[in-house]
Amino acid sequence: MSISLTSSSLHLSNLRLDAHYHPSMSILRRFNLRTLNRRNLNIAAAAVRQDTTAWTQAPLSTVDQAAESLFHVKIDVSDSPDLISSHTRPGQYLQLRLPDNEKASFLAIASPPLISASKGVFEFLVKSVSGSTAELLCKLGKGDVVELSQVMGKGFEIERIQPPEKFPTVLIFATGSGISPIRSLIESGFSANKRSDVRLYYGARNLQRMAYQDRFKEWEATGVKIVPVLSQPDDAWKGERGYVQNAFSRAHQKFDPLSTGVLLCGQRQMTEEVASLLTADGVLNEKILKNF
C-alpha cells in the first residue's frame, strides 16, 4: 500500500525554524528550503508524520494460519477505546510495529467496525513476507505485545454507490491479502441483497493461498456471488483460471455502466487494468472505489 503526500501537507510558513521546535527539524535542515521540489516536500512531510505518530501498545489474542503464507491475526484493543472509535469505515488501515523494531507495516483492518467495537478486537489478514515486520508478527503468539498507530484512511466511500436501487450492479475485485478490507466491507453490509447483481472476483495463485473460503457461504447469503479465480490451479480445478480482470472480460457480463459501482483492492496492475476496462465501458470514475 502506498500513501502519497502532496506539498500542501507541509506548511513551511507555519514552522518555527529553530532547533527547539521539533526533533524532525534536523531532517528538514538537510533540504535547501528555497529549492524544495515536490519530491523533497513529500520526503520531509513523511519524516514529520513518522515522528509524530502516536503508538498504542496492545496484546495479541491469536495468530492462526489462514492459508499458505497468510495468517489471521487478532489484537486485543479493548483497553484503547479512542483507537476503537477511530475505526469508522470498512477499508481503513493502520501501521503496526513491534516494540523493539521501528520498521512498521501498513495493514488493512479485516474486521467490520461494529465487530471491532463490540468485541474490542482488531482483526487482520497478514501476508508473511520474508524479512518484513509482517513475518515477525506472524511468528508471535497470544499475549505478545505490538504497537498500533491511529486508524488511517478514508475507507470505502460506499455512499457514492447508494442507494442500492440506483446502483443495482456492484463489481468487486480483490487479489491475495487484498481480500482483507473486502471482508470488512461485506460483513459490514452494503445492501447487497437489495441489489440485482453483486459479484466478487477474488484472485489467488491456488486454493491453498485463498483465505476466507470458510466464509464464502455466509457472504453469498448476504447477496454477494463469489467468483474464485486461480492463476496457477491444479488439474482438478474446474473454475475460472488466470487473472481476475481476464475472468471478468470472459464473462461478458451485461450491465448498465451508469448504474454500476466498483470496489478494488489488491495488486496495482490489477486495479489499474480493471479501472481502465470499466471506464472504457462507461462506468463513472467516481463510482470506482478504493480504500486509499
TrEMBL record:
Gene3D superfamilies: Nucleotide-binding domain of ferredoxin-NADP reductase (FNR) module, Translation factors. GO terms for molecular function: oxidoreductase activity. Residues 53-158 form the FAD-binding FR-type domain. CDD domains: FNR_like. It comes from the Eukaryota. This is FAD-binding FR-type domain-containing protein. It comes from Aquilegia coerulea (Rocky mountain columbine). The lineage of its organism: Eukaryota, Viridiplantae, Streptophyta, Embryophyta, Tracheophyta.
